[in-house]
């Protein structure tokens, strides 16, 4: 077992090998090589272990995905059994297999009533690439091939393939490799940083109405769809004001454009319902899924289609699209077992009735911290806005992210995984987190904030822009 031998190398040797041969995603390679990557060796529940023996509490569920927690032997056993029985077969040429059938049926059972078909991919990015082709194909079949443009939001995240990265509204991503044609961005509903003197409700309406303006400007005859995350995740856990989604829904309906809810994060329990669309009362035509679908134990994603979308695209005959691993049997078997476990163990109810209310009281109390302005928590997806002046919702004079990074560094040192997006701090722990573990998470978060605050003040950074 080669792997086990590598596992026992000293940390410094592993880090040197990593730096020499492993080009990391979303990482400054040379900066990391100097510092050395943290080597994660095992995990159980909400706890990670690194090669130095630290026990780290994972406030991010990996990358928002390990919803069921680490170390579930049931999932390992299902994977092994499926590999022995049928490790791979495709679903292209009039064939299918039991894991894909069973998972599609289970997803249809959990999804909103009007959505009953699943197109499989292996990731969220791939699923969103599928969605671009699906909505354009939908309008072709309806005899309106010029309806191609998809409206998305600045600071949205929809993956990092060419299609996903273009739908996303992150300029640094667009800058590396460009964008595909036919994508138009409107403003995000981030009241804290962009709402000025408006109330959140006024601002939510204003930002939703940018959709209407964009449709009018582009011409409704050119617009295929709108895509948005019910709550922006990678953008900083931006919870939209209560007025936002009802207005978006009204506008999509009025102009008859398709609504894609990217639920790669908000799907499968994260918001305290099976889907964020339920939490926000959204009626999507397509839902993007990945991450929590398999709790990250296997790479799998997909698009859940409304009956209307499925029927129209089917009328057009063959849809020339698919991935070698669409509906991969091992990935599907593991995802299915993950959903079974979540149902059996009432994980979504645990989020809604236990973990969310318990964490919410403690999370909101962090607002008393001198550096914390807004606190947000929906289900188990939360954020803190750092600010040098709460009343004015001021930004720091230092470059955005400078202070956020200092907090993250203290979290790292205190064996807590929390991320920073600019000067917002975000969490998204495994959904199975217990109240005792929430206490530890919040205690470490508070300690990290205190330590960072002292550093920020000492370095003269506690200054408004
Ligand atoms: C992570 C994410 C994606 C991309 O998923 P990958 O599996 O990384 O390709 C897409 N949309 C949202 C909302 C995400 O959070």
Automatic annotation (TrEMBL):
InterPro entries registered for this protein in UniProt: Aminotrans_3 (IPR005814), Aminotrans_3_PPA_site (IPR049704), PyrdxlP-dep_Trfase (IPR015424), PyrdxlP-dep_Trfase_major (IPR015421), PyrdxlP-dep_Trfase_small (IPR015422)
Gene3D superfamilies associated with the record: Aspartate Aminotransferase, domain 1, Type I PLP-dependent aspartate aminotransferase-like (Major domain)
Ranges annotated as spanning the membrane: none
Protein name as catalogued: Aspartate aminotransferase family protein
Cofactor: pyridoxal 5'-phosphate
Domain of life: Bacteria
Protein family (similarity comment): Belongs to the class-III pyridoxal-phosphate-dependent aminotransferase family.
Any matching Pfam family: Aminotran_3
GO MF entries: pyridoxal phosphate binding; transaminase activity
Listed CDD domains: OAT_like (cd00610)
Keywords: Aminotransferase, Pyridoxal phosphate, Transferase
């Amino acid at each position: 077992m080669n792997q086990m031998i590598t596992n026992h190398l000293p940390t410094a040797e592993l880090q040197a090998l990593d730096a020499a041969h492993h080009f990391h995603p979303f990482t400054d390679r040379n900066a990391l090589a100097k510092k050395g990557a943290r080597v994660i060796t095992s995990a159980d529940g909400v706890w990670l272990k690194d090669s130095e023996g630290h026990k780290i509490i994972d406030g991010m569920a990996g990358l928002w995905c390990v919803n069921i927690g680490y170390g579930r032997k049931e999932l390992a056993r299902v994977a092994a059994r499926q590999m022995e029985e049928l490790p791979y077969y495709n679903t292209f040429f009039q064939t299918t297999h039991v894991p894909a059938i069973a998972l599609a049926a289970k997803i249809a059972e959990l999804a909103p009533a009007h959505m009953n078909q699943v197109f499989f991919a292996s990731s969220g990015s791939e699923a969103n690439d599928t969605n671009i082709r699906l909505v354009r194909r939908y309008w072709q079949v309806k005899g309106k091939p010029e309806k191609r443009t998809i409206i998305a939001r600045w600071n949205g995240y929809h993956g990092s393939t060419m299609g996903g990265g273009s739908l996303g509204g992150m300029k640094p991503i667009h800058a590396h490799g460009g964008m595909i044609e036919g994508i138009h961005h409107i403003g995000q509903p981030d009241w804290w940083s962009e709402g000025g003197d408006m109330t959140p409700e006024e601002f939510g309406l204003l930002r939703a109405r940018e959709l209407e303006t964009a449709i009018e400007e582009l011409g409704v005859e050119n617009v295929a769809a709108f895509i948005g995350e019910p709550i922006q995740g990678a953008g900083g856990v931006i919870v939209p004001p209560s007025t936002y989604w009802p207005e978006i829904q009204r506008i999509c309906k009025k102009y008859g454009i398709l609504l894609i809810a990217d639920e790669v994060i908000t799907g499968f329990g994260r918001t305290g319902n099976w889907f964020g669309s339920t939490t926000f009362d959204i009626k999507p035509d397509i839902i993007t899924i990945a991450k929590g679908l398999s709790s990250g134990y296997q790479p799998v994603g997909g698009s859940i289609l409304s009956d209307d979308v499925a029927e129209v695209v089917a009328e057009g005959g063959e849809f020339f699209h698919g991935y070698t691993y669409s509906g991969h049997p091992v990935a599907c078997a593991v995802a299915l077992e993950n959903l079974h476990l979540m149902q059996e163990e009432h994980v979504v109810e645990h989020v809604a009735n236990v973990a969310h209310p318990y964490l919410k009281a403690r999370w909101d109390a962090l607002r008393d911290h001198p550096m914390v302005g807004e606190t947000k928590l929906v289900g188990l997806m939360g954020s803190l806005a750092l600010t040098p002046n709460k009343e004015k919702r001021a930004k720091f004079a230092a470059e955005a992210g400078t202070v956020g990074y200092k907090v993250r560094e203290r979290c790292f040192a205190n064996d807590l995984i929390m991320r920073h997006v600019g000067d917002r701090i975000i969490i998204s722990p495994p959904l199975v987190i217990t109240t005792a573990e929430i206490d530890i998470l919040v205690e470490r978060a508070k300690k990290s904030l205190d330590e960072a605050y002292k550093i920020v003040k000492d370095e003269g950074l506690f200054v408004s822009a």
